[in-house]
Amino acid sequence: xxxxxxxxxxxxxxxxxxxxxxxxxxxxxxxxxxxxxxxxxxxxxxxxxxxxxxxxxxxxxxxxxxxxxxxxxxxxxxxxxxxxxxxxxxxxxxxxxxxxxxxxxxxxxxxxxxxxxxxxxxxxxxxxxxxxxxxxxxxxxxxxxxxxxxxxxxxxxxxxxxxxxxxxxxxxxxxxxxxxxxxxxxxxxxxxxxxxxxxxxxxxxxxxxxxxxxxxxxxxxxxxxxxxxxxxxxxxxxxxxxxxxxxxxxxxxxxxxxxxxxxxxxxxxxxxxxxxxxxxxxxxxxxxxxxxxxxxxxx
Length: 299
Description:
The chain is an alpha/beta fold. It is built from ten helices and nine strands.
C-alpha cells in the first residue's frame, strides 16, 4: 500500500493494522464472497444487472458497512449517521445485498431485484430503498454531491462523515474534477472518496477509452490526501479507511486497485461482464468458483 503526497509516493507504515484481528479480516473477506454469490443469483434469476462492477466493489462495500460507517439500520434517517454516496449506481446489486445483510430490509427481498414495483430498482433510489442516500443513474456526480453533504455537515456542526464510492469510468466526467477542486478549496476533511479502479468500463478498458494515469498523482495535484491499495485485500482496505479518518485540513481519496468480475475467471477484466447475464452453464461455473472463494476464509 502506498501513500501519495503531492509529487511523491512513499511506503506507508503506521500501527493502525493492529486494530484489525485475523478473525475480523477473515469474516469480512468471507462475507464479500458470499455477497458475490447473492448478486450472481439475483442477476441470473432476473436476467438483468451488472456483475462485473458489483464484484469489484464487494470488499469495499463490506468494509464500509460492517466496519467503518456509523449507522443505525433500525433508524435509517438518524441525522448524525455517516453518508455513503454510491456514485456507480449501475452496480447497485452489491449495494442492495450489503444493505439487506446489514439489516435495512429483509434479505429475501433481494430476489425482487429489478422487478416491476420492487424497492430494488436497477439504479438506487432513496425514496424507495431504505439505506440508499442518493439516486444514481447518470454517472459522474458523486464527488460533487459528497461535497455538498460534507459542507452541510460542517455547517451543522455534525461529526458525520461522507464517503463516496466511484467507478473509474466516472473519471471521464468533467464534473468529477470540478468536485475535486471544490473539496480541496474548502478543506473538506470529512469527505472520503474510494475509487473502484478496476480498469474496465462498458466499452473497453479505461486506458483505451479515456486514460487517467497517473491517477494518484492527479488527485494529489488537486491537494487531496491519496492512498493506493489492493482493493480486494481486506486488511489494506481497513487500514486505509482508518488512515483517511486521521487526515485533517483536506479531503482523502483511496485508489483501490480492483478486478472487474473478481472471483470468476471468465468474467475477470472483461467488458462483456459489465452488464452480461450468464447462461446456466456459466452460472454454475461462477457459483462453484465463488463458493471456493468463500470457503478459503472459513474458520
